[in-house]
Design brief:
By secondary structure, the chain is of the alpha+beta class. The protein has one domain (about 40-165). Helix content is about 40%, strand content about 15%. The chain has 2 helices and 7 strands. The strands form 2 sheets. The chain has a 5-stranded antiparallel sheet with strand order 3-4-5-6-7. Strands 1-2 form a two-stranded antiparallel sheet. The longest helix has about 50 residues, at about 20-70. It is rod-shaped, with a radius of gyration of 29 Å.
């Protein structure tokens, strides 16, 4: 907008936005950014949950290959163990090249667990096992896989009865 001042040779040129226009645009950008951030957080959780399922399937494959060499038996432990530490050392590089760990790796809330029906370590006398991980997208949601091929989600920590042993 060009404005000429009366009795003057000068012209005042106003190119710009009013304060109200700027505030409206900034608030719209803020609202859109917060919506995108919420979507991104949800997508991250789903991505980590998908990785957890894939990691447990990798452990299952390693355990099945291990069982082929040990006449259908799996590593035994007394109680529940951290799969990414103890189970990995039992399987060794022969059966699992790298030991997947939970994407969050905090060790207290998100972890991979293994439980067998054998008579303690270092025996190889288990005929059944259950592997599980806590999911992020919903509170108290677990994904588990069993020696019998069953894989499912459960809203409580899985137990041996979920796999039939």
């Amino acid at each position: 907008m060009i404005k000429k001042i009366p009795n003057s040779k000068f012209k005042i040129i106003n190119f710009g936005f009013t304060l109200i226009e700027l505030l409206v645009v900034i608030s719209i950008i803020g609202i859109l950014a917060s919506l995108l951030l919420a979507r991104f957080s949800s997508a991250e959780k789903s991505g980590r949950d998908t990785r957890r399922k894939s990691d447990l399937n990798q452990y299952r494959t390693a355990l099945e290959n291990y069982a082929v060499k040990t006449n259908g038996l799996y590593p035994s432990y007394t109680g529940t163990i951290d799969a990414s530490v103890s189970l990995c050392s039992a399987l060794g590089a022969t059966y699992i090249a790298s030991c997947p760990q939970d994407p969050r790796q905090d060790g207290s809330t998100y972890y991979y667990r293994y439980l067998s029906n054998g008579a303690g370590s270092p025996n190889i006398n288990a005929t059944q096992y259950i592997l599980w991980a806590k999911m992020e997208r919903e509170t108290n949601l677990y994904w588990y896989v069993c020696a019998n091929g069953k894989a499912a989600e459960k809203t409580a920590q899985p137990a041996t009865s979920d796999c039939g042993f």
